[in-house]
Amino acid sequence: MTRTLSAPVTVAFDYTRSTGPVVGRFLTGLRDGVVVAGRTSEGGVVVPPLEYDPVTHEQTTDFVEVASVGTVTSWSWVPEPVKGQPFDRPFAFALVTLDGATRPFLHALDVTSPDEVSTGMRVQVRWAAERVGAITDIEAFEPLSGEGDAGGSAPPSSGGTGTRTVDPVTGVIVPVSLDYQYAASPEESAFYRGLNAGRILGQRCPTCQKVYVPPRSACPADGTPTAEEVELSQTGTITTFCIVNVPFLGQKIIPPYVSAYVLLDGADIAILHLILGVPADEVRMGMRVRAVWKPEEEWTYSLENIDHFEPADEPDADYDTYQHHL
Ligand SMILES: [Zn+2]
After folding, report:
1. What is the distance between the alpha carbons of residues 223 and 244, in angstroms, rounded to a whole number?
2. By Cβ atoms counted within 10 A, which residue in 79, 82, 83, 229 is the most buried?
3. Whether residue 162 has pLDDT greater than 60
4. Are 96 and 107 in contact (CB under 8 A)?
């Protein structure tokens, strides 16, 4: 039996988050090289400041700067860091109660071995060389160098007291990324192998006779398993389309351009693809288009082997021929 195909997939986008006045105050402090805590109604000093008091539920408005040195209260060794963690080498996550605070604060502790970490050890903030108003402005904690250094490590620039940035941090951009392994079904695997050979393959339902591309393994309408392979035409009809005018991160083509549903001749379901070779405002429903493939040496197991569709220089299709596929 032929093996099914699988491939790594990454889904990622940058999430823009507004910080609000409390978290914004904390991040603004980090940019200025100071750690800002919030005082609770019961006299606690919490880093980062809580947005609302845990007892009275009032918004936190009482802020206090705490030291950038503190004491490890608990820790966990990270022998094999994963993507997105503070370091790509082994390190510790530590809960550190900064001098002046009453609750610990979680951050990375940069040491080379778990033998160098212990509860009760004194540590200091190591500031990032360039600070932007993010939690990463604290690069990590590191063992306190020299006892009696009550002030901890000085930030590389600005800091001190009295000189504070005027424009507060109001938002942060948080990249969100998900890596996963996509496993194609046997029927989809045949579809992708077809594309790697310059063919577009579907399957016909033995019950309702509809031809699905890509094949679904079973008919979505009546549930019948599908097995009969059908090679589809490279030409089809635009059933509906969208003109993309909005630029976005990672976009491969400069807008405006057209994404369209193309009903390939012989298929009963349309595929989504790019339309080029015609001005965006001339694309229309019923327009006949043909597949334009990338050079064969660039083919992989992907629908992207078809670079785009272009006008086929045929009369438009009658509405009756595609009205059931909109
Ligand atoms: Zn069916």
Report:
1. 35
2. 229
3. no
4. yes
- Among 156, 175, 194, where does a domain finish? 175
Residues 42 and 88 placed together within one structural domain of the fold = yes
Distance 223 CA to ligand 1 centre (A): 7
Considering the domain boundaries, does residue 180 fall inside one? no
Number of independent structural domains in the chain: 3
Determine the pLDDT at residue 57. 96
Structural domain boundaries, residue 170? 6-175
Least confident of 37-41, 126-130, 165-169: 165-169
The Å distance, Cα 212 to ligand 1 centre, comes to 9
**Omega within 30 of 0 (cis) for the link into 114:** no
* Strand residue runs (E) in the chain: 6-18, 35-39, 45-46, 63-66, 69-78, 91-98, 105-109, 122-127, 138-143, 171-183, 201-204, 211-212, 228-231, 235-244, 257-264, 271-275, 288-293, 306-311
| Model pLDDT, residue 85 | 93
Answer whether 213's CB lies under 8 Å from 271's CB. yes
SS3 137: helix
Residue 326 binned pLDDT confidence (cut-offs 50, 70, 90): low
Q: Which two tokens stand for residue 198?
A: 């310059």
- Ligand 1 centre and the CA of 185: distance in Å? 18
The answer to whether 315 and 287 are in contact (CB under 8 A) is no
Interstrand relation of 211-212 and 201-204 (parallel, antiparallel or unpaired):
antiparallel
Whether residues 21 and 143 share a domain: the answer is: yes
Q: 210 alpha carbon to ligand 1 midpoint, in Å?
A: 6
Q: Which protein residues have a CB closer than 5 Å to ligand 1 (ion)?
A: 205, 207-208, 219, 221-222
Query: What are the pLDDT digits (tens) for 186-233?
Result: 999 999 999 999 999 999 999 999 999 999 889 999 999 999 999 999
